[in-house]
Write a structure and sequence with these properties.
about 270 residues, alpha/beta, Rossmann fold, 6-stranded mixed beta sheet, 4-stranded antiparallel beta sheet, 7 helices, 10 strands, about 35% helix, about 25% strand, globular
Amino acid sequence: MSAVASPAIPPPKPARIELREVSKTFTTRHALLSAVGPISLTAQEGEFVALVGPSGCGKTTLLNLVAGFVAPSSGEITLDGARIVSPGADRVMIFQEPALFPWLDVFDNVAFGLRQRRMRRDDLDPVVGQLLAKVHLGGFERALVHELSGGMKQRVALARALALDPGVLLCDEPFGSLDALTRERLYAHFQELLGQARKTVLFVTHNTREAACLADRVVVLSSRPGQVRAVVEVALPRPRDFYDPEVSRLAGHILAELRREMDVRGSDDAA
């Protein structure tokens, strides 16, 4: 009797970002402040990883480490196997505030990085036009920043980041300052864009439902110094609705993990 062949197991995707036993300590006027770690974390190529945790646990510090803005005190961070030692165009940060240039119109804000790369005007115009269409801002090319709503500004910032075609997007609460209705609309736009672009995303948020709505995996961090306390896989089909009951259920599970961390921290402090 002939043996039945086992089904082929596809090889794992290459790790886009990997942190190995990374820690970061800052020197203050009076003491050393341990902000992060040691922490080990991997974001696969094309994966959306949300980071949640108590305020001050080092979430933004982690983004700055991956961006290359600051160096780890110990451990190693790699991008496609190469050690990160400085900022690079392969990683782009999107902040809570859009940080647009107020003296430039929408088109020129999105085109800024491309002009730094000396892209020809004949090539630049269609690229910027396509990006603005993708973020639903066609027709606003010559609008000035002060003429835009908060949600429109954040979409310009997203288009500007995508214009450089980075492998990695680092998002520091990019929707945190927006009203609820605007955020909900942007969740749909964001999922649509990332579904097309397949970027690797590290996304900081305090909103557990936002994390469940957007992420492939949610990493719950401990209180400072931030360490991985739990990892929640999100297997829900896309696109996801912010108010879907399954998204709400998963958000509750993430919140329970956060509360468990706070309870543990409270017990440690009491001891």
